[in-house]
Structure formats: structure tokens, C-alpha cells
Design goal:
The chain has about 110 residues and is an all-beta fold. The strands form 2 sheets. Strands 2, 4, 5, 6, 9, 10 and 11 form a 7-stranded mixed β-sheet that branches. The radius of gyration is 13 Å and the shape is globular.
Length: about 110
Amino acid sequence: QVQLVESGGGLVQAGDSLRLSCVASGRTLMMGWFRQAPGKEREFVSRIRWSGPSTWYRDSVKGRFTISGDNAKNTVYLQMNGLKPEDTAVYYCAAQKNYWVDSWGQGTQVTVSS
């Protein structure tokens, strides 16, 4: 398990961009993001496996969100462009040290107004 610290959330208008960052306290095999809107279950957003690297996205964010990172710095980013009100949620950083997911961040709020 590793400690994860997110930053970069905020309040924006529809169509705006935000970049989320997450720093892990140690080396990981994979890092990514989930989100949870009020009254809904937590859902997968994107992840990056450092070997490769390989990336995955949920369909609703493909073409708008880009995950990237620096394995040497234990850091992952989520560039979110063309934000929509339905993207409003608490975004959680997630990591795999031994298994997916064995580490969670505390969450950062993203609010998109229409």
C-alpha cells in the first residue's frame, strides 16, 4: 500500500479544463482515477500501467480526458478538457502496489457548472 495525495480540483464552467495531480509515497505498478457523484457509486475513469505504458478510459471521457504521469516521480495526472456538468464528482486517485486497487487518495472535488 502507498499513500496518495491529490490536488487540482475546483469549480469551473462547462467547456473548461482542469488538471488533477496525484503523488504516491512509493513505487506503484499502476495508477489511475475513479470518481463518485452524489448518490451514485464510485466509477472507474482512467488508469495507466507504467510498463508500456498502457492506458484505459471509460467511454464517456474518451477524447476529452488524458492520463499521463512520471513513474520516476510516482506522479499521475489527469488532464480534463471539455468538462461537462455530468463530470461533477469527487475524484479519487487510485494505485496498485500489489493489486488493483490497494491504495486510495482522499479525493478532490470537481464541480462543473452549466
